[in-house]
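FAQ: What does the model actually see?

It sees only this:
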Amino acid sequence: MNPEPLTSTEAIAQPDFKHIQPAVEMPTQANEPLSPAQMTCNLAGAKAFAGDYNNDPHAPILVAFGGGGLHMCRLRGTYDLDRMAAENTPQMLRSIRRLPSKDSKDPSLEWDDLTFQFGTRSFLYADEHRLFGYAASPEEAESLVRNFSNRYEKPKKTEITGGIFNLIQFESDHIRTKEVVLGAQTILTPENFSLHYGEGSLEWHQKFLLKITARNSGLSIFEGRPGTGKTFYLRHLMGELKDSHRFYFIPTSSMNILSKPEFIGFWSDQHQQHSDRKFVVILEDSDVALMTRGTDNREQVSAILNLTDGMLADFLNLQIICTINCSASEIDSALLRPGRLLSHRVFNRLNHRDALRLAQSLGKTLPQARDFSLAEVFADEQPSEVRSRGPVGFAQ
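And it is asked to produce this:
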């Protein structure tokens, strides 16, 4: 596996001799030197190792190099200290080992820090995540680090995950993101997709993938009552497009961020950092932001119009997906204009036949012959009365 890129070789500062002080204050002649018995040397200020270890200055390195050239090279990774110690025991100069507590479930010993000496002026320090090489030349220091990295770096665990989205937060005039990784179970197989969303849903999904991949900007509206699978579908979509798209989620409480001046600068920075991806913004339960413009939502509707069409859309290149619980008839008509609106789909309840097929695949039984939402099929308890909302799957 490829190790993390090596940082530039760094020269270590020479000892700060201002720390050399008389052990006992006593009068001396102007030109009379102090004897060794009258002197102490505080090596902590010399920083022979990384700054974290000033309280443990590893004096042998300073002793070995003295006033000569001393060069350090460092590399980050994840390293097998147990094997490192076992295979280099004769060269192990210093170490810190952690003993398990009496209540620990793991009785094994663990190494915290290891220092090896491979020659008069050749040292290597290691902890679980860092290697430091010390030598008389930058090339020798780098060689030490690369050699140990190749031999003792632990292989990275390949964990299968679902999609990833970035939660957008606005705090004190600053926009930041928090990455959220979804589980692998959020990606549906084609068979399970049809079970969850009914006949014809998989064909619609494939067409939507082509649209959202071909376009850089546009608006998609997913309509449906709570529990009909809009969010469940978005999780699946994030998983299918995780290698080509970056998804951003704006909570309902932060919807006013759309009209903030900082919003444009934020997207410009994101595009510079992730120039190889297409961007998709998720606005969940965004009924208010999409409804016919009024005094309470005028800025939000205008912001979505500007972000999904026109010159600002050409600059920002954002796909926006909104989920709503209201009817499309209540949406501002400007948002539904052809060219801006990429897709509008209705997530309906499953009829009894399709709900029964899904329930049987989950090992569940349905209490009565009627239509069901996805949430009701998955729930352990069913509501006593549910109103039907029409045919299966997505509206065409």
